[in-house]
Amino acid sequence: MSLIGLKTIQPTLLVGKPMSGKTTGAIKKLGDPIIMYANEIPNDIYSLPSERGLLIEEIHYKPDVKSIVEIIRTYKGEIIITSNNQKDVPEEIKKKCKISRASREWGREYITNIAPNSEKAESLEKSMYNIMRDFVQSNDRDKVTKILKYNKPSDNYLMIWLMNNIHINSLAFLDSHVKRRWSNNYLYELAAYSISGFGYAQLKTPKKGKYSNLVKICKRVGLKANETHLFLELLNDPDFEKKVKSKVSNAEWRKLGFGEKKLRKNKKYFAKQNNTLEDW
Fold first, then answer.
1. What is the pLDDT of residue 3?
2. Contact 155, 187 (CB under 8 A)
3. Domains of the chain, with CATH numbers?
4. Disulfide engineering: 223 pairs with which of 10, 98, 192, 227, CB 3.0-4.6 Å?
5. For the whole prediction, is pTM greater than 0.90?
6. Closest CA to 101 of 14, 182, 229
7. CA-based Rg of the chain, rounded to a whole angstrom?
8. How many C-beta neighbours within 10 Å does residue 52 have?
9. What per-residue confidence (pLDDT) applies to 233?
10. Neighbours of 36 (CB within 10 A)
């Protein structure tokens, strides 16, 4: 069999969000393609008719990489692969395809034609930064409550973000009475309605706390990890201070507030020489 004149069609990786018309566009281009899902590849991949074309859906979700790579290698027709995002596509498949993006919101346009006054769909699953941005800026407090109940951030983590963005008086009751005593949903509701939303406020993110070596130093001198308060009092004892000084480095001693450790001076020793006539 001669390989001269054999034309290879590079597969197309079509990337786009849900309702962006990936499948519709692929079917329109291929005509009447064979449709299969990336996690349900059939066993008879060598008997697929090349004239119809092949559409492999949802490559981002648990794909059968080995079978798909074999299809790309052996299938003679046109192949289109769809994915919701590019980062979840296996690298072994991605490097064999040319990437195309579906940016048009076909689904949204279809819904707008039927219901012109409908609101744009928004995902409730958000990062903590986006949750708190809505919390601070949105005037729709029912929406904020719904987002908090869906994502369920832990009470301590929520308090850390809240204390940087709203007045401490609004948090006193939540922190002292509600947290871990009543239902989490009740905590989210009280937190959401503690302010009315500013619309213009800038979100303040929590600052990372400074790391302290005090716990490690306590263990090194024979104290427990929760006895750091005793450690600072025992440093008033000269004998204990001398013990600590022998256990810590110069940088740690400086962080404790005692200045610089006195460096030990090495004595210089001179060997006694017997001069001979050759030395002169």
1. 46
2. yes
3. 12-106 (3.40.50.300), 128-192 (no CATH), 214-255 (no CATH)
4. 227
5. no
6. 14
7. 34
8. 14
9. 81
10. 20
